[in-house]
Model the fold of this input.
Amino acid sequence: MTQVSMTVNGQAASGDVEGRTLLSTFLREHLGLTGTHVGCDTSQCGACVVHVDGNAVKSCTILAAEADGADVATIESQAAADGTLNAVQQAFQDHHGLQCGFCTPGMVMSAVALLKDNPSPSEAEIRAYLEGNICRCTGYHNIVKAIMAASGQDVSAIAAE
Amino acid sequence: MPKDHGIGASPKRREDVRFLTGVGNYTDDINLNGQAYVHFLRSDVAHGKINGIDSTAAAAMPGVVRIFTGADFEGVGSIPCGWQVTDKHGQPMQEPAHPVLAQGKVRHVGDPIAAVVANTPEQARDAAEAIEVDMEELPAVIDMKAAVQEGATKVHDDLTSNLCYDWGFVEENKGAVDEAFSNAAHVTTLELVNNRLVANPMEPRVAVGDYARHNGESTLYTTSQNPHVIRLLMGAFVLGIPEHKLRVVAPDVGGGFGTKIFHYAEEAFCTFAAKAINRPVKWTSSRSEAFISDAHGRDHVTKIELALDADNNFTALRTETYANMGAYLSTFAPSVPTWLHGTLMAGNYKTPLIYVNVKAVFTNTVPVDAYRGAGRPEATYQLERVVDKAARELGVDPIALRRQNFITEFPYATPVAVEYDTGDYNATMDKLSEIADLSGFAARRAESEKNGKLRGLGVNCYIEACGIAPSNLVGQLGARAGLYESATVRVNATGGLVVMTGSHSHGQGHETSFPQVIAEMIGIDESMVEIVHGDTANTPMGMGTYGSRSLAVGGSAMVRATEKIINKARKIAAHLMEASEADIELKDGAFSVAGTDKSVAWGDVCLAAYVPHNYPLEDIEPGLEETAFYDPANFTYPSGAYCCEVEVDPDTGKVTIESFAAADDFGNIVNPMIVSGQVHGGIAQGIGQALLEGAVYDENGQLLSASYMDYAMPRADDVPFYSVDHSCVTPCTHNPLGVKGCGEAGAIGSPPAVVNAVVDALQSAGKDVTHIDMPLSPSRVWAAMNG
Done:
């Protein structure tokens, strides 16, 4: 067992983990942060995306031990303390960017990271960036639209609803 | 002005906040005190005889609680099949046993051999690797046509062959159909494959079994679209637990698309093992495991022939299909190529004579069952491809040929046993022409050609049958269940309502749309209505969500129960206002006496029902709670017209979707936002089937596309923004909401549009290509072009 310590959503977190314990497992099973989802085992689906030291990372793809000392943010940190959704979360609700909700935490975390680097991405840039996030419900239409809206772009010309 | 309230409005979804903030409650988020974890040791061969299992070393590994094998399940029931098809000779289908854990033989890669229960998932997995299985590998049958040859290796030794059934529909029409073909002016023939798919909801399956010693009650938490169905099948047929001692809970479900309808061995295992070891037992599927244990979809090989007269009227249709069942019969598998497929072969056309033959075949592959559309996409694909091919052979416009043969008068009884109540296929085609800007296609093609690309336009129609019913009919067709839906509406003393429904959302947003209906009926705010679903302990027996049935059937049950509520509340209001019940009107959340200014608020009537001091106790009981079971009189028949424009790179064969438009008639619409979202998702899955997805087995039965590395799921950059419209409305005539269902249409209508478009693009360049089988990968398209 290895002792790991990190900051998760602004709070100190530590635990004893096996060497093979993934960050996603540590978040879900050790810390009870079940908003981070695991949808595959080949680092393809992106449901597990979190931010590690500000970068979007698939938490099933790094070991908990690798995140020792890191600053980790999960979906649970994205709304304000009073429950107010952040701009991406709010746009996803406003534009019906989610259905079953399973891929949604990863989608939101990826979108937040995208907008940090590229505050006004084009449709093509958004679609390319989301290569690593699979959604089976929405056909991506309303996800792309929501991310454009969250970045302040006018989406009224994109097919309604 | 769009409505902001009630039916026809698009309020923001109330489920979204919990999903967006990471506090949804999916099955894998459930952890029970003292739970153990199971890992299934699965077969890595497609067909084999188990000569022995030595788990001595594994049992001694750290954390192992107990190892189960097939021997532990002797005397336990077989995983049941919920639909018995009768073949063309009047004989029942062949129905093999399906053990929870393999009994002496494995029949597909992924068939569970043993189950290790340990204190942690890692310990269970490690110990499973230490189990020694003495496996004698047997020849595998993978190809369906080879499987039904004389002398083929049998998947099940106790069956007479690998043929599950040979179904003819309508058998009595066969002679007339054959005669029509011999008299035809033109016959178009097409052989095609409807590619095998994996549903791939993003949430893998999970099961947590629990057993309470103090009252002998078992509880199963599972990723299911229909917890009552699981309770009935598992309790009555597998484990022998009566319903009152078995609770099945499906909390938030992360997508289903059909594959979470079925009762799976892992559910029975966890429930059984929890009692056996007196600890909760949890199983979480990995994605790799999902590929070899979730029921697959489609996998039909079809020859379809269309007969036309000299005026291009369709005179007859004849099909022969091989449908893969896989190694065992999954819950509804036999119904998919038959009653969900043959009955749709008329499509949108008045073809007077139709004969459908389906041979369902066992192979050493994962079981195949319903996947989004289930039989209807297979019917639509072959029909809309053969009509397109006929138009090209005859040199007529594919849209004109369709319009010429459209059914235009309703109700319309097809020659394949169903009666369409309403529809207007010209209206959706007109709408499609508008939203897809069909008249601008030539200019767009010229532009693409300037850029060195081939542009193609594909159009097709579809018809769907949703809300399979009525129960007495489906019983005659072989269903071993009713297909009603239920709702209990409980009004609380202060006027709020709770609807306990047998429908269950796995992404469809019932918590938002169902209250819109009640809000409209009573004239109250949606926030006063709460939806409870997914738990057999607090919902009436219901059949769940699949086949685009929730609003049409479950919503109708809710309407019926609410009508009972309103009728009773009206009596109470009449008493409170000392008026005749016949004069009482309900509007905007208040009862009033017609022609007077007397009124009493909804909340006051509800309070009177629970505090019945001034109350007609001699006439009616206190309280305000009603249940309704709704059994539809008929299917509903959504329809529409779809259009896809593609560009093909002539150098590489790569196809890109340039635009996709869908004009649907779903009857009345409760929440347009949700309906559009359903269509978007269905279109993406259809584009996935057409261009990307395929579950491919090698000749030894190894699944080659068994992860997201090899099975190409549609990504955001594989699809465009879609143009969808559902303003063409011919309301369903036989349910109270006039709704038809929208969940599967996109997946049904889109694959032929894509393939028609690619064929059009290639023919525009003078290529003699009449068909390419899905998925239309660059290599297949390039090979077809360079034939």
